[in-house]
Amino acid sequence: MLTLSNKKDMSSRRVLVFPSAAELGPALARLVTARADQACGSARGRFSIGVSGGSLVGMLSKELTALPNLDCSRWVVGFCDERVVPFSDPESTYGLYKDQLLSKVNIPESGVLAINPTLPVQECAEDYARKLSESFPGEAIPVFDLLLLGMGPDGHTCSLFPDHPLLEESQKTVAPISDSPKPPPQRVTLTLPVVNAARCVAFVSTGGSKASVLKRVLEGGEGPLLPAARVTPSKGELLWLLDEPAAASLTLQVERPASGAHL
Ligand SMILES: O=C(O)[C@H](O)[C@@H](O)[C@H](O)[C@H](O)COP(=O)(O)O
């Protein structure tokens, strides 16, 4: 069983609120480059990052491609989840990153861990799990240096949806899903044991439409834990990067970092 504790001392969770998404973006870039420098300078000698779709694609791509001296030659980029559609399909998260980021920085092709969307969804998940295990040799659970996650208005993250049996997956590192409530229905996703094994997990959530679900995820409430609330890295850091509209309903203590501050 890929078991990891799901409990985390909430005092090690940081909720960081920025005036707007425009000010959050550069802070996200600083987080990524700081973690990349740290990882590349460690015995691992490389930086492994998992990225998500949604608004994160544009924000991350814009901020990273604007940096003058970004060196991605020792980066390994995986996908926290992916839609099983051709790369040329506008729904392909890889396709979007390829156009907006991967083709514009010096990440070697061998450093990009993408799905094979020509495979049926079950085989696609197995194939992606194999790629991860080859890229993280000797690790039963791949330990990413940084996972960047989004959260949908229903509290989903990766392709882990509320009340879905995949939330209980404890054997696989990557799971197929054929009944995603959010289209397209066929996807592959990292499982919670992999997400919770990461050294750092950062959610990025912006806009007033996220305010009520964020309150439930971060401050609790009735009913079962939403998928995003189940992201509680067993040893790693957990950061929530929000803008003021998304944080509007929160009453918990948050940090409001100064412009240019290191996270
Ligand atoms: O595959 C998907 O359907 C998206 O990747 C999705 O999971 C997204 O990450 C969240 O809905 C948050 O999206 P926003 O950041 O755009 O709100």
From TrEMBL:
Signal peptide: none annotated. Residues 20-240 form the Glucosamine/galactosamine-6-phosphate isomerase domain. CDD domains: 6PGL (cd01400). The keyword Translocase does not apply. The keyword Hydrolase applies. Its EC number is 3.1.1.31. Pathway: Carbohydrate degradation; pentose phosphate pathway; D-ribulose 5-phosphate from D-glucose 6-phosphate (oxidative stage): step 2/3. It catalyses: 6-phospho-D-glucono-1,5-lactone + H2O = 6-phospho-D-gluconate + H(+). Keywords: Hydrolase. InterPro entries: 6-phosphogluconolactonase_DevB (IPR005900), 6PGL (IPR039104), Glc/Gal-6P_isomerase (IPR006148), NagB/RpiA_transferase-like (IPR037171). GO terms for biological process: carbohydrate metabolic process; pentose-phosphate shunt. GO terms for molecular function: 6-phosphogluconolactonase activity. NCBIfam families: pgl. Hydrolysis of 6-phosphogluconolactone to 6-phosphogluconate. Belongs to the glucosamine/galactosamine-6-phosphate isomerase family. 6-phosphogluconolactonase subfamily. This is 6-phosphogluconolactonase.
